[in-house]
Amino acid sequence: MAICFEGQRFELRADETVLEGIERHGSSLPAFCRRGVCQACLVRAKSGAVPAAAQRGLKDGLRQQSLFLACLCQPSGDLEVERIDGGAAWATRVERVERLSEQVLRVLLTAPDGFSHRAGQFIQLERSDGLMRAYSIASLPGGPLELHVERLPGGAMSRWVETATGAPLTLRGPFGECFYLPDEPERPLCLAGTGTGLAPLLGVLRAAIAARHRGPIQLHHGSRQRGGLYLWAELEALARDAPQLELAGSVLEEPARSEPGEGDERIAVRRLDDALLGSNVAWSEARVYLCGNYDFVRRLQKRAYLAGASLARIHADAFVAPGARVAPGAQA
Questions:
Q1: Options 2.40.128.20, 2.40.30.10, 2.40.110.10, 3.30.930.10; which CATH number does 89-175 get?
Q2: Which of 2, 54, 208, 222 could form a disulfide with 73, with the two C-beta atoms 3.0–4.6 Å apart?
């Protein structure tokens, strides 16, 4: 199958998606989860038939405009593809890098003039050599963009950014629907995430508190070890100022006696899934935000829905490690 994109015409390899083909030929599209969850890689088919699998989860209005997800698309015939607005590039730089834990960095970027975002959305960062990664914004508009970056073993971007203060970057976005809706001040909010999935949840939480949200808010953060529950002191400070906020931490390993927070009754050795489903969330009324590990997010989406949550009020921000290969036909 031949793909036409921005003046290039090329053949897709066997089992290759449109996104992979575009990247192999030197171009790029915003792409975060690469599994059809974040919908950042939406493109339009100017001509050709789009397979139904590439439009899975899209609203009818998007389907009718011939939009589809490049990360899921393996066409059965030729396609002419065009980008849609949303990939605007902005110049930024690294203002400051702070260590939040052994594994997590807080990276503050200059907010470009004219750039608009909602706390909890994500952006795609591009280095001068073309390396790209996506990160969620934990900060409210009006100041530097706060990102939480996990220090991955051999991570090309995460290891580089540790000493990148002052370095220029290009950002694209913002993308995603993981943000606070201010016209529902009484609605229960349920926020749950693993690892640096805390970043978009913190953005949503900060926005809710700033808007004087009155409904109950639950925030569940999970990690393998107690040290992975970073920023716990900041969350406690938010809870002191917002009595409607309930915090819950879940770890898979018993904490060492020397670990900060050991003995905190809000932190228990349990699966985050079990903690969340065993909580007093009013599922039929709640707006739910699930962020972090892909398998966790997809599993919790299903379990929250079966518990009574409306699919229209479940917002997912799933992370897939760079280079992870996912079959387009896999259930998303």
A1: 2.40.30.10
A2: 54
Write out the CATH class of domain 2-83.
alpha beta
Distance between CA atoms of residues 249 and 266, nearest Å? 6
pLDDT in tens, 135-165: 999 999 999 999 999 998 888 999 999 999 9
Q: What is the pTM of this model?
A: 0.79
C-alpha distances out from residue 181 to 49, 119, 316, 331, Å: 36, 11, 15, 28
Q: Residue 238's closest CA among 267, 208, 194? A: 208
> What is residue 11's three-state secondary structure?
strand
pLDDT in tens, 90-121: 999 999 999 999 999 999 999 999 999 999 99
Q: Does domain 189-318 have CATH number 3.40.50.1360?
A: no
